[in-house]
Amino acid sequence: MRIIKGLTAGAALVSGLLFLMPPAADACSTFLMRDGKQLLFGRNFDFFLDGGYVMTNQRGIAKQALIPNSPKPARWISKYGSVTFNQVSKEYPYGGMNEAGLVVENMWLDTSTFPVPDDRATIAELPWIQYQLDNCATVAEVLATDAAIRIVQRSSPIHFFVADLTGDAATIEFIDGRTVVHRGADLVVPALTNNTYDESMEYLRRHAGFGGSMEVKSTWESLDRFATIASMLGDRGAARRGKAADRAFEILETVAQGKATVWSAVYDMKRQRIMFRSVANRDFRVVDLEKLDFGCEAPALVFDIEAPAKGDITRRFESYTTELNRGTVKRTFERYHEKNFMVGVTDEMQEYLARFPEMLKCGR
Predict the structure, then answer these.
(1) Predicted model pTM
(2) Which among 74-83, 147-156, 230-239 has the top mean pLDDT?
(3) Residue 53 lies in a domain
(4) 62: closest CA among 6, 1, 8?
(5) 20 to 30 A Cα–Cα from 196, which one of 220, 239, 290, 355?
(6) CA pair distance 159, 106, nearest whole angstrom
(7) CATH number, residue 178
(8) How far apart are CA 159 and CA 104, in angstroms?
(9) Contact predicate 204/190, CB 8 Å
(10) Does the structure show a pLDDT above 80 at 23?
(11) Count of domains in the chain?
């Protein structure tokens, strides 16, 4: 596989750049709803910074992880096309779904401790999401990559919830340097918020219907959000009374954190559709992956999350440009600096990050 020219020098340039999320606001909720023949993955992205883009990512692109001073950055050629939600830069998604029906999402977890250095290839936390969407069709394949790649923490103590088209799902956490997975019989409730899965289940078991006597409280606290989701997923009667997608958004609305919930998305994995709405545009919008061209030579596309649109917006995507990415990076870091976060990230570093996707070309 070819080495991406200019990347080594660029990695040295951004050696002070920490990727890529500010301190959490006790943020984000995810769950998987298995409703008869439907398979829906719900996600609230809760954050102090609004806006962002829905982006397409092409298959057949040669990529290399941007890891400063790493002797062995991860390298790969994307096997699947995907659609992701991005707020900082292209190639640094917060989550998304690929054309094989795999969904990968992240949530903040203060206690995350990623593995210590070893001989595995390295990648940062958010590009790990893109790596999985680029390379994997199933949860089993995602879990198998742990033998080949290791996350290098830049600034984001996060954990992940993943699901595939078969209904298989898993939480992936990094606790005391170990990879901890809950899947199958160990994943009693297919959901994740901002505590470890074990902590969440321990709290849930104190509630009526789950082994205890407490009533489920609808608050913004992570553990209460997990208990609320578990209770609502278990209410089969409510699910039967309405459309599954409506029920998924009802759950997301119940655990939303007011204006801090920047966007809410439901992935219809079997129909290859993504439905979402945002804090500034409450109209539902739909992306149909089957209408998108993920070929290597086709242009990557973007859609402004806050654009005044509703319904199927698949044909309203625009071509990705470096200028658009530059504006995205600039806006994000201006807002970060207002919060006194990552103030050491220079304009030169931001420019390299903005141009980084230019280096990723069709490859063999």
Answers:
(1) 0.93
(2) 74-83
(3) yes
(4) 1
(5) 239
(6) 6
(7) 3.60.60.10
(8) 11
(9) no
(10) no
(11) 1
